[in-house]
Amino acid sequence: MKMLLPWELLILLSLKECLANTRHGPVFTQEPSDSIFPLSTDDKQVFINCKAKGNPPPHYWKVDGRDINTESEPNYSLVEGNLLINNPHVINHGGVYQCIATNTFGTVVSREAKVQFALQNFNRKSRNMVSVREGQAVVLLCGPPPHYGIKYSWVFNGQRSFLQQDARRFISQRTGNLYIAKVEASDEGNYTCAVRNMMTNATVFSSPTPVVVRRDVMGEYEPKIEVQFPDTLHVSKGLSVKLECFALGPVPSISWRRADGNPLPGKIKINHSSGVLEIPYFRPEDAGVYECVAENSRGRNVARGQLIFHVEHLHWVQTLKDAHMAIDANLQWECKAIGKPSPVYRWLKNGQQGRIHVEAGRLTISRISLLDSGMYQCVAENEHGAVYASSELKVVG
């Protein structure tokens, strides 16, 4: 191996130092993500990740579109660019957060991240009595507090065990409401909605709803489907999907079928007593129109909805590269992302939409000037989210 002469070694060391100290705009190395935090007496801090590199070093944050001032807002502090929320409050600190990285070369913004808190307490206001005829149907509203990641149950007359679901009684895991298809005299009493946080296992209870059963018996009628799944539902590959269906009236039977006549997939799980159909590990062949049939001695009713295989998460197929351009040159940047539905594009300069010409996702700058220097971002978004691509434009005099 050839030995370097002193002057060659000096040049090599100088070049390495120069490269190490190259000044450039901010670049994210870690962006925040949507988060759900359990809220209990033990949870005193919320930590939201965000890291960026740049020379000079960048700095950060926004919530719901406003700047966070860590000096005047004592609950907020920065830890190496990450945001720390001390003693978080549901109303004051839940929201949409965005990391802002800026230095002398420009500004970039991170993807938006929603911060939510798992469970609060019920309103302790007394609930009105519900009067219902024997043989009639009744729906008891849960009215849960703000929540994420929970399971609903109901308690009858303060019993230690939860109310059991059967062909006559159904608890929706979408709304928390309790449905009784045909009321019996033994249903009279107090009903309490219980909401359990699946993260911490903590449970909160509503005020009781008194139910009084009148003895004037109601006649029979055809089933009325009160709980049904959406008309259209997009499902991603590999997810598990649950469809709810429950009818009121003289206790109806619930059955499921595919509208195209094909048999239901063998992997499907059907809970006939609680009116729930579950499709685990969703695949393209599981897509289609599903029907729920409610039938009793007085007639039948059908509810239907379409499951659509959600093919692709939004992602880039063409991103951006930093550009060094001379004054009066022309620049065109193009970015491409794919997803369903197809994304729409917008462009940001230094974190804002400004004096830039955009057409069909392409950004064009004619006769570049020194004022055009900065950080540019292409944002592709659809109803499922957004992705950001960044690049720096340096104008050489």
TrEMBL record:
**Which Gene3D superfamilies does the protein's record reference?**
Immunoglobulins
- What this protein is called in its record is Ig-like domain-containing protein
Q: Which UniProt keywords apply?
A: Cell adhesion, Cell membrane, Disulfide bond, Glycoprotein, Immunoglobulin domain, Lipoprotein, Membrane, Repeat, Signal
Family note: Belongs to the immunoglobulin superfamily. Contactin family.
Pfam families (UniProt xref): I-set (PF07679), Ig_3 (PF13927)
> How does the record describe its quaternary structure?
Interacts with PTPRG.
Signal sequence extent: 1-20
One Gene Ontology term of the molecular function aspect: cell-cell adhesion mediator activity
Question: Organism, per UniProt?
Answer: Seriola lalandi dorsalis
Q: Does the keyword Membrane apply?
A: yes
